[in-house]
Write a structure and sequence with these properties.
Elements: H1 6-27, H2 35-67, H3 71-95, H4 97-100, E1 102-104, E2 110-112, H5 115-185, H6 191-208, E3 214-215, H7 216-232, E4 240-246, E5 252-253, H8 259-268, E6 269-270, E7 278-285, E8 288-297, H9 308-320, E9 325-331, E10 335-343
Parallel strand pairs: 4-7
Antiparallel strand pairs: 1-2, 3-5, 6-8, 7-8, 8-10, 9-10
C-alpha cells in the first residue's frame, strides 16, 4: 500500500519552524558565542531533544498508549524521559560552565546562570519537545484513522452496490426469459425478435454498464429496447407513452437505475388499455433529472415478489445519490405512480 507523505511533510514543517526560531533568536542575541558554545547548545542539546522526541513518538506512544493502553505507565515513562534529558543537559552544563552557564555581552560583561535556573529552563524545553511529539503523533494517527475509515466505507459501499447490481441483472433476466418461454411455448413468430432484443439488452447490462456513470441517452436507449421487448409478448398490443424532454444527450446517470420502475409497470400494471397507457416521462434540465412512471393497476395481480426491484433501486439511490434524490411513490386504488428526482 502506498504510504502517505503527510507525516513526513508535518515533521519537516515542525523542525523547519524550530530551526527558524533558533536562527531568529541568534540574530537578536548580542552575547558573544564560541564555536564550542554553538556545538554544545545546538548539536549536543539538539541530539538530546530530537532523541526524546522520537523515543516518545516511535516507542512510548505506540507501545504504551496505542497498543497496551497503559496510561499511568506512559505518564511515568514521560516524566522519566524528561528527567533523563534534564540530567544529561545539566551534566553537560556543569562540565562546561563557561560555555553553557555563562553569557558574555558584546561589552565583555559576564553573567552567570544559576544551575537551578538552568534546570528549570531545560525541564520546560524538554517537556515542550515531548508535548509537540504527542501532538504530532496523535494528529497524524487521527488523519490516518479517518483515511482508513473513508477507504473502508468506500469499499463497503462499492461491494454493496455490486451486490445490488448482481441481484438486478438475474432479476431482469428471470422475467425476460419467462416472457420468451411463453412466446416459444405458443410457437410465436416473435420469439426470434424477442431473443435478439434480449441479446442487445444483455450486452448493455454486461459490458456498457460496468462504469460508475453512463450517458443518460444510453440509459434511455436501454429502456426503449426493454419496452420493445415487452411489447412483443402482448398479442393485443401494449400501449406505452415515452416522453423525453431537456438535455438527454448531455447528462450522465448511474446505470440501470430506472429499469425497475418500468419493469414493475409491465409486471403489475395494465398495459393493454389504449385509453390509459403506461406513461413514462423523462425530463433532464440543469443537472436535475425528473423521471416518472404512471400505470393503471392490475387488480388481479397479487405477485408478492414485485417489490424486489424497487427495494433494490432505492438502496442504490441511498448509496450513490445520498441527499441528492427524492422518490415519491403513490399507490392509489386504481393507479400506481413513481416519481423520482435526482441531482445528477
Amino acid at each position: 500500500m502506498k504510504q502517505s507523505k503527510g507525516p513526513l511533510i508535518l515533521h519537516a514543517i515542525f523542525w523547519t519552524i524550530i530551526v527558524m526560531l533558533i536562527v531568529g533568536l541568534n540574530i537578536f542575541d548580542t552575547s558573544i558565542h564560541t564555536a564550542k558554545d554553538y556545538f554544545i547548545s545546538y548539536i549536543a542539546y539538539g541530539i538530546i531533544n530530537i532523541s526524546i522526541f522520537y523515543i516518545n513518538y516511535i516507542f512510548l506512544i505506540p507501545e504504551l498508549i496505542k497498543k497496551r493502553k497503559k496510561y499511568f505507565i506512559y505518564v511515568l515513562a514521560f516524566l522519566i524521559l524528561i528527567a533523563v534529558a534534564v540530567v544529561a543537559k545539566t551534566a553537560i552544563a556543569v562540565l562546561y560552565p563557561d560555555d553553557v552557564l555563562t553569557n558574555v555581552s558584546a561589552k565583555g560583561k559576564r553573567m552567570e546562570i544559576p544551575v537551578h535556573s538552568f534546570v528549570i529552563m531545560v525541564t520546560f524545553l524538554s517537556g515542550f519537545f515531548l508535548i509537540c511529539s504527542c501532538i504530532i503523533k496523535f494528529t497524524i494517527d487521527w488523519f490516518a484513522s479517518e483515511r482508513i475509515q473513508r477507504n473502508l466505507e468506500s469499499e463497503r459501499r462499492e461491494m454493496e452496490l455490486q451486490f445490488l447490481k448482481s441481484q438486478l441483472n438475474p432479476h431482469f433476466l428471470f422475467n425476460s426469459l419467462n416472457n420468451i418461454y411463453s412466446l416459444a411455448y405458443q410457437k410465436s413468430d416473435k420469439t426470434a425478435d424477442a431473443i435478439m432484443k434480449l441479446s442487445e439488452i444483455m450486452r448493455y447490462m454486461i459490458y456498457e454498464s460496468n462504469t460508475p456513470t453512463v450517458a443518460l441517452s444510453k440509459e434511455v436507449d436501454y429502456l426503449t429496447s426493454y419496452i420493445e421487448l415487452q411489447k412483443i409478448r402482448f398479442k393485443d398490443g401494449a400501449y406505452i407513452e415515452l416522453t423525453l424532454n431537456g438535455e438527454i444527450d448531455n447528462q450522465k446517470i448511474v446505470p440501470l437505475m430506472l429499469i425497475s420502475f418500468v419493469e414493475n409497470a409491465f409486471k403489475h400494471g395494465v398495459v393493454t388499455d389504449p385509453a390509459e397507457p403506461v406513461r413514462i416521462n423523462i425530463i433532464a434540465n440543469q443537472k436535475i433529472l425528473h423521471f416518472s412512471v404512471i400505470n393503471k393497476k392490475n387488480q388481479q395481480n397479487k405477485d408478492a415478489q414485485g417489490g424486489v426491484g424497487l427495494t433494490n433501486v432505492e438502496r442504490r439511490l441511498q448509496l450513490v445519490y445520498p441527499d441528492r434524490y427524492k422518490l415519491n411513490v403513490v399507490n392509489s386504488a386504481t393507479h400506481y405512480t413513481c416519481e423520482l428526482m435526482i441531482d445528477i
